[in-house]
Amino acid sequence: MKKLWLATVVSVIALIALAGCGSKGISGEEAGELFVNRLVYQKEERKFSKEFQNGEQFGQELDETIQTFGENFAQSLNTTSAKVPKKQVQQVTQELQKQAKEKTTYKIVEVNETRNGATITYYVTGLDLVSAVQEMTRELVKETLSNSEISDEDQKTVEATFNILEERVKVIKVKADPVEFKLHLKKEKGKWYLPEKNKEEAINLYITFISGAKTMDKMNDELEEAMNVVAQEIIDSLDTQAVSNSE
């Protein structure tokens, strides 16, 4: 009887231990890797669904975040009253995702983990989207000068813009220097999640991979600076032509 009682106690302790281990879930570093793999590289969907709260739904929200970014980015490049064709937006967005999967890299350099969450610090080497847009603008200016239909018709301007951009994205390079980014995840009952107040970190992390800039505002600042360079190049070219014609 004593041996039976002891065996029962040992079995119960073992079950409790196993249950405790099961509720811990993956580590903060693993969660940080899984988050990037799902958001940027579109892989480990099943594991993400398992290890994150409402993982399947959250993964779909991340996909929608990427789609929204692509649409907003496309609209920001349209300086005309014409509509941007949805097919061209999808093509550019998909090509950006493809290039990000193939060319970007990241490294987790620090994890500050507690019982209830973790702050994961990444070094991300992202795409140089700003340079791609800058080169697109240069090519668009050249085509506009050689083909008056592009400048005369808004729809042709839009189509030319995105045709050129898609080609530039196909040969996009990565930025020379990595960018530091911090992601703040929480954990409850062994499941990880991104708190509502930190939801913007998801889009900012994606932007870091896509553009090498930590936020949309930072990316827009870099785009503005790049466009100013192109504008100055055009002015200098026109001034040079004017001087040549006067001689």
- As an assembly, this protein is single chain
Strand order of the largest sheet: 1-2-3-4
Biggest pleated sheet: 4 strands, antiparallel
* CA distance, first residue to last residue: 114 Å
Overall number of strands: 4
Low-pLDDT regions: 1-22
Class from helix and strand fractions: alpha+beta
Q: Round the Cα radius of gyration to an integer and report it.
A: 25 Å
Element order: H for helix, E for strand: HHHHHEEHHHEEHH
Helix content: 55-70%
Q: Estimate the global geometry from the Cα principal axes.
A: elongated
**Count of helical stretches:** 10
Amount of beta strand: 5-15%
Can you offer a commentary on this structure?
The protein is an alpha+beta fold. It is 67% helix and 13% strand. It is built from 10 helices and 4 strands. It has a 4-stranded antiparallel β-sheet with strand order 1-2-3-4. Strand 3 (179-188) and strand 4 form a beta hairpin. Helix 6 packs across helix 8 and helix 6 (129-146) packs parallel to helix 10 (216-246). The radius of gyration is 25 Å and the shape is elongated. It starts with a helix and ends with a helix. The model is unreliable at 1-22 (pLDDT under 50).
